[in-house]
Amino acid sequence: AAGASAARDGGPAPLASHPGVNCDQCGMEPLEGARFHRPAARFQLLPTDLCRACYERRAAADASVKGRLQGFLRLDSPDAPSVPMTGLHPTPTPNRSEHRSGHRSDAEGGLVAP
User: Fold this and answer.
1) What is the 3-state secondary structure (H, E, C) of 17-86?
2) I need a surface site. Which of 19, 28, 30, 69 has the fewest CB within 10 A?
């Protein structure tokens, strides 16, 4: 109730809590705030969950190792949609009017050179 009151009064909003999830690096449990999750994959048998601080530390340390943070999703709360991440930034979504060739569509749907 106090957190909701602070958010209404212009104070910081309370951090979302992810029950049953802990940070695999620092051990925060339950994980609070944004959750950075990488599902299990061929090269990694177990899924990974990191808090924002540990994800940002890893991103800074791995800046010289391109692609090491690929596959992470940011979840701002347990019921929020996931946001694909590339390093410290959300993965850009392609512009629907831009084609693989770099050409753009004009108003009639024709291709315009880049």
Assistant:
1) EECCCCCCCCCCCCEECCEEEECCECCECCCEEEEHHHHHHHHHHCCCCCCCCCCCEEECCCCCCCEEEE
2) 19
Specify the pairing of strand 31-32 against strand 104-105. Answer: unpaired
Nearest alpha-carbon partner for 22 in 9, 33, 11, 14: 33
Q: For residue 31, which of 45, 41, 21 has the smallest C-alpha distance?
A: 21
Contact 111, 103 (CB under 8 A): yes
Q: Is 5 helix (H, G, I), strand (E, B) or coil?
A: helix
Of 67, 16, 79, 26, nearest to 49 by C-alpha is 26
**pLDDT reported for residue 12:** 73
Q: Name the residue among 17, 22, 19, 20 with its Cα closest to residue 32.
A: 17
**pLDDT at position 64, please?**
62
